[in-house]
From TrEMBL:
The keyword Mitochondrion applies. GTP binds at residues 85-92, 150-154, 204-207. One of its GO terms (cellular component) is mitochondrial inner membrane. One of its GO terms (molecular function) is GTPase activity. Residues 76-257 form the Tr-type G domain. Belongs to the GTP-binding elongation factor family. LepA subfamily. This is GTP binding elongation factor GUF1. It comes from Paramormyrops kingsleyae.
Amino acid sequence: MRLPLITYQGLGFPLVERLLDLRTCKIRRKQLYSTTFTLIRHRWMRNIPSICAFTSKQFSTQSEKDKIDMSKFPVENIRNFSIIAHVDHGKSTLADRLLELTGAIAKTDRNKQVLDKLQVERERGITVKAQTASLFYTHQGQTYLLNLIDTPGHVDFSYEVSRSISACQGVLLIVDANQGIQAQTVANFYLAFEAHLSIIPIVNKIDLKNADPEGVETQIEKVFEIPKEDCIRISAKLGTNVERVLEEIVNRIPPPKAKTDDPFKALVFDSTFDHYRGVVASIAVFGGQVRKGDRIMSAHLGKVYEVNELGILRPDEHPTDRLLAGQVGYMIAGMKEVKEAQIGDTLFLQKHPVEPLPGFKPAKAMVFAGMYPTDQSEYNSLRSAVERLTLNDSSVTVQRDSSHALGAGWRLGFLGLLHMEVFNQRLEQEYNASVIVTTPTVPYKAILSSAKLIKEYGEKEITIINPAQFPDRSVVSEYLEPMVLGTIITPDEYIGKIMTLCQNHRAIQKNMLYIDDKRVMMKYLFPLNEVIVDFYDHLKSLSSGYGSFDYEEAGYQPADLIKMDILLNGKPVEELITVVHKDKAYSAGKALCERLKDCIPRQLFEIAVQAAIGSKIIARETIKAYRKNVLAKCYGGDITRKMKLLKKQAEGKKKMRMIGNVEVPRDAFINVLKRKDK
Ligand SMILES: Nc1nc2c(ncn2[C@@H]2O[C@H](COP(=O)(O)OP(=O)(O)OP(=O)(O)O)[C@@H](O)[C@H]2O)c(=O)[nH]1
């Protein structure tokens, strides 16, 4: 208790009194600490009045918490909806306005994308995690409970959208009045449409000078067959017409079909790991009710837990005594292990078993990469960080892996490159982990022709997620590569350039449709490998930023693939093996050799960096010989100083990885693998 007491000093009497109040309220120590840290942060900003406002809000919320009676909200007065749209069309901004209008947060200029809570979301300005908030809205004398889920817009996080949709009966489909329908608008529309949800089209950003709400409504009618009159024009930024959105949510979205008389049944649609409280599960109650103290069971593991805490998010956690049919909230039930809280699991009362809900279709990883701790002694801590983060992001697949150069690690599967980058950034920021990520690859398939290998694998068709295990042509009758159906939406003046770009990426055109008099939607079949790295960047720059792109899985097709080795003075480097299409082998080999040349320091002898296909060398770079004389700056003959420098040099060598007789600094080696640059 020492730390909070020290921080009381200088904060003024009213605050001390409040903190003491807080203690008599039997608030948990952890909350007291976190409150105090927040106070310190506020004090840092030298804003004492705001501290008092903050604390009074905290404590009034505390007393208010016990007041919410969830039974006040019968199923007919509940609306569960998601906000979906293309990237940057204003989902999080509209969520802010809805939170303000319903009093969940105060109206201030500082409320910007409050549901984007993660550091990575704030830094990148994008939503990567769906977030829930419960709003109370009074309409024609009735109080409604509106459960809002703000979702990400980027294609790599579409799994979050599809999961959120499972807890909803309706969606707000937002379209930017300036940009019109974009590729992810189409993809997200179909997710909601196929789930038979009520769709409320919203034309946002009508305050912009170039806004064309009329034109955008025509597009909505043409592409989605939704009558123009159903669209609501708003400016989420200025709050124009947002009140009407609330009314239409109540009028157009049906209440959930759940019944309070049924036995309790809830779907776990998201989970996070809290260091102090264990697993915090987001649940949608599909029937019955659950109270604090109830003994519940998980359908997945069959384990029994006691419910310690229940509540709703407003958007911060707000404990309640129970959750009833149709409601969405969080639950803490003493689950300490990450594997205990499977997303898609069904929870029910121990005494009243029920038929489990269908759960979720597992996400299909599109991109795989090896991940290793920078220092092997951190393996265990990294393992627990990866486990906890994958609990919160169930679309990541994990398999153990090991490599000569990088030690023990994992092979992780992601939905795309941005997803992979965000996952790494979250590992670093939220778990303080330092990792090495290897060259990403897509999952190839091979049809084996060798009876011996078929016996070994137990099947004829195998999937390869590690290029080092790519089987040789001599034992394979056919290689297959994953394909995707890409949707491109662009102003028609860029069609020619985009067609050439697609051809260069081995794409085949499937169809083309004008969505209004100047914008066109094109569908192309692409090899996945051709779109994951830099296709979108090229498309953006060719179309002056106006083109948008989205893709969905489209099975596998035969392809002429080959394994490319990288050699250092004739010795192969296992971690740099890549699988490439035969037509692209030369350019890929050349690029990799050039990058490696820049990453390896010159040594006492010449080093040949080569790309090889089988025994054939297809590209080569040479690193010239050089000797770093560490004693060069050491004038005079002080032997102890010389010894010190030589010792330091020897220590530096420990950080080297020997490939044949070539020393490759671990960092340099990693930099090549990271493939950050093109
Ligand atoms: N002028 C104007 N700008 C808006 C409006 N609504 C949102 N914006 C701006 O558009 C940008 C993107 O808004 P967000 O709310 O983050 O968009 P989003 O759809 O949540 O973005 P992602 O989560 O990354 O997909 C921000 O700079 C907002 O300030 C609006 O009505 N008018």
